[in-house]
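Here is one such protein, fold included:

. . .
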Amino acid sequence: MKYSRHAMILKLIEEKDIVTQEELAAELRGKGIDVTQATVSRDIKELRLVKVMGKNGVYKYAAMEKQDSDMTDRLFRVFSESVISMDHANNLIVIRTIVAGAQAAASAIDSMSWPEIIGCVAGDDTILVIVRENSMVNDVLNRFSNMMR
């Protein structure tokens, strides 16, 4: 439920200029998702949404990583320079990194806020990425590979 709601929120803010939490809640209800303002508030925090100036001069919600391209570029670089290999079993992805590179690479993964990823755990040179469903693993691996190019 939460996963599909988060995905819908990201889709809505991409397609429309959503200005308030109430407006976002109304849009979700219009799509058949029953939410309260408190739930929307938590979702905004979990998705790390920020308010940015829209083309019409009004502040609207946006995904943070889309607004800070320098930070995104840095995170991609940290990830691509740290990762040595990737493998998976079912919905688990194991990423091997250079020594002491796992924490930074995991931070990069976390900051992307991909709804397919439940979370990740980093050691010194290994990251365990937990993907929501087995069917999503290949897509996530492809996106990781694209980050390394």
About this structure: The CA atoms of residues 20 and 60 lie 8 Å apart. The chain has a mean pLDDT of 88. The domain at 2-66 is CATH 1.10.10.10 (Arc Repressor Mutant, subunit A). The chain has seven helices and six strands.
